Amino acid sequence: MKLKIESMPLFLFLILSLFMSSSLQSDSNTSFLRAARAGNIDKVLEFLKNGVDISTCNQNGLNALHLAAKEGHKDLVEELLQRGAPVDSSTKKGNTALHIASLAGQKEVVRLLVNRGADVNSQSQNGFTPLYMAAQENHLEVVRYLLENEGNQSIATEDGFTPLAIALQQGHNSVVSLLLEHDTKGKVRLPALHIAARKDDTKSAALLLQNDHNADVQSKSGFTPLHIAAHYGNVNVSTLLLNRGAAVDFTARNGITPLHVASKRGNTNMVALLLDRGGQIDAKTRPTIFLICVTASFNALLFLTIIHPIQNGLSPLHMSAQGDHIECVKLLLQHKAPVDDVTLDYLTALHVAAHCGHYRVTKLLLDKKANPNARALNGFTPLHIACKKNRVKVMELLVKYGASIQAITEVRTACVNTIHGSFSHCSHTAAHHPESLCLPSSSLV
Ligand SMILES: *[C@@H]1O[C@H](CO)[C@@H](O)[C@H](O)[C@H]1NC(C)=O
Ligand SMILES: *[C@@H]1O[C@H](CO)[C@@H](O)[C@H](O)[C@H]1NC(C)=O
Ligand SMILES: *[C@@H]1O[C@H](CO)[C@@H](O)[C@H](O)[C@H]1NC(C)=O
Predict the structure, then answer these.
(1) Which long-range contacts (CB under 8 A, 24 or more apart) does 42-45 make?
(2) Among 67, 123, 262, 306, which is most buried by a count of CB atoms within 10 Å?
(3) Which residues, if any, are the signal sequence (predicted)?
(4) Where are the domains of the chain?
(5) Is pTM, for the whole model, over 0.70?
């Protein structure tokens, strides 16, 4: 009895000791990882000295760097990197140390990893980026740091979720604001739905619309998300907007509709969608100054009111003729756009095409029976205008299709000479002509 009582604990102790020491010996890997998780630099270094592989990982593929990053052990992370731990090694789920630190909100470790060349936009198995993870977990400072270091918020997960979409869904308002602000380089706050429309981000748009957003919310310059989507040719988000009640013919202050925008840009699929949803094919821009989309940036389109007096009363057909978008012109005509529709100055699409020297569009319009002798308010025919702009090929074409040469002799005989190949400068004195019809076409990103 006595023996039993005294020897039992000793026996157990021996067993336990044996078990523990054998376990430690057989798996120094586990101890190494445990030391890394605890941030015990001395111990970790000792294991490494004794030959433990720095890439040792547990069953989920987490290695010492991942564990140290997760727990925010910046100095250990530094040591491991210095000793050759690969900065972008990934777990079984494809997460790098930067993903893990971003998810855990370990700002200092994030900073260190980025400075050591970690791939800021690395995507894990399901397409998650570090930025996405930080946004999801509401780590505002990490989001800010990643954005400032080329974190790309356009990269979506496999399911199509962007960092903005997840932040919206989770209600992380500061992160949402930050993402939106950063998107416009901090200058102007854009309505969120416009951003989603620009990116064709249907997930974000759907979430915004769920949260009581009006599908026709206007930017400062009066454009709706549908205008923006039309500009960029983003059919998916446009379909969503239309399904959620966006007005297909919403007219901004200047009378411009989404169909004008799409026609002007030559986004044929968008033109098709808008026509399909009842877009008015002969909508006219208003007789006011008109914000024309010719500038080089999206911000300018929305905010810098670059005002240019142009011919008023342009239809989508005029606009696609102006942009030399032959497929759009074709589509509009197929949908019965009146080929000789006129602006307030009685300019037809043929006048516009002739002015700009768009040979193919001119030919298409003529093939579709556009009147080669249509007269604008100032009496000019397309041939006059082509002559004035020295569009020799277009002039020949117009004549071939029955444009009256006689009509222009009243302007100047030089024009006739031009038609016959002996070009001479064609500088008549009639003042008014639609110079502004040929503004350089926009090259928005
Ligand atoms: C420890 O990790 C190394 C390399 O990661 C591996 O080769 C070795 O088999 C592991 N040892 C044990 C006991 O799991
Ligand atoms: C950001 O990601 C998007 C989508 O993958 C890509 O189209 C775009 O070029 C990227 N931007 C930069 C600056 O790399
Ligand atoms: C747009 O929708 C089509 C059809 O639903 C789909 O195949 C395509 O991947 C979508 N494009 C984008 C950019 O989401």
Answers:
(1) 44/76, 44/79, 44/80, 45/79
(2) 262
(3) 1-26
(4) 29-185, 212-287+311-338, 342-424
(5) no
